[in-house]
Amino acid sequence: xxxxxxxxxxxxxMAGLLFTVVDAMVSFxxxxxxxAGGDPxxxxxxxxLFDVLFAIGGWTVGAGALAAxxxxxxxxxxxxxxxxxxxxxxxxxxxxxxxxLLGLGAERLxxxxxxxxxxxxxxxxxxxxxxxxxxxx
Length: 137
Fold this sequence. Notes:
The protein is mostly helical.
């Protein structure tokens, strides 16, 4: 229960850090390698490396979401739809990224898993503080 949930939230935070680092590396490295000309295999190899790192980050997000929603007894999950959104995002994230890493061509589902996790995070924020929308006005 509690240890899995804490580990899940830590995993989600680590995935955010991983995505930031990988995206920064991609924005600096891939354009420079492409502009340098030379052997196209260098660009292809680096692109494949970054794709795998991105999928590992996505896998970490899926595992984190699933672990964070492992126990239904947390007060933030008192609304059932929040719990099931988190679980669905976790399962989809794990399945889509694992399928991609295995070469099964599920890369289009990776984005859907991220969108589902964003919806779950918004639902979670509203479940924690139902007056949040009126506080923003």
